[in-house]
Amino acid sequence: MASYICSVCPRECGASRDDVSGNGFCNMPVLPVVARAALHYGEEPCISGTRGSGTVFFSGCSLRCCFCQNHSISHKNEGKAISVERLAEIFKELESAGAHNINLVNPSHYALSICQALQLYRPKIPVVYNSSGYERVETLRMLEGLVDVFLPDCKYVDSALSLALSGAENYFEMASAAILEMARQTGVAQFDADGMMIKGTMVRHLVLPGHTKNSMQVLDWLATIKDT
Description:
The chain has helices at 45-48, 71-74, 84-96, 111-120, 137-142, 159-166, 171-186, 212-224; strands spanning 4-5, 16-17, 33-40, 53-58, 80-81, 102-105, 127-131, 149-152, 190-191, 197-201. Strand 7, helix 5 and strand 8 form a beta-alpha-beta unit. The protein is globular. The longest helix is centred in the last third of the chain and has 16 residues, at 171-186. It has 228 residues and is α/β, with parallel strands linked by helices.
């Protein structure tokens, strides 16, 4: 892929990114850098199930959360650069290993390559887009028809808190619009006979110590969209 000026995430930092390098906020190239690809049992029960979720952990991030549990991957960018073709092969391998789904963790800044990989090989199991919620609607629309389940966070309503803890004052502005777009694309949640989620949008929230007011604001907002 030729070098391009990136606006794929809400930072819209105008970085120059090519296949092997990038000078933007995420400091990542266009081609995916993957830290781990394996069956994973630590997601929500309707995602991990009994056979595990076929999880691909992508390196780098468009946020700087001080409480990140994957700090070495998201902040220190540990991982191995691979081609789009190899990513498509990984989808096949995880599917063959019995995964309930293909679970793309922290995929936002690789959306272009992910689209290409899913066009090369569309798994016969659900594709899960597992993100921080900090997304551009325009980027999500590129994924329409390629993602079956969206699994976003909704971390904050309080902009001062999102700036202090994740370096993103506009987090709720972007995440709220993104979640509505995700829900539009997937529609009402659907589950198979074993209780596995096969379509829909499931929003997660982490309650931060000392910030329960923010959590209540998140829940209040989510309650306004429960019937959409």
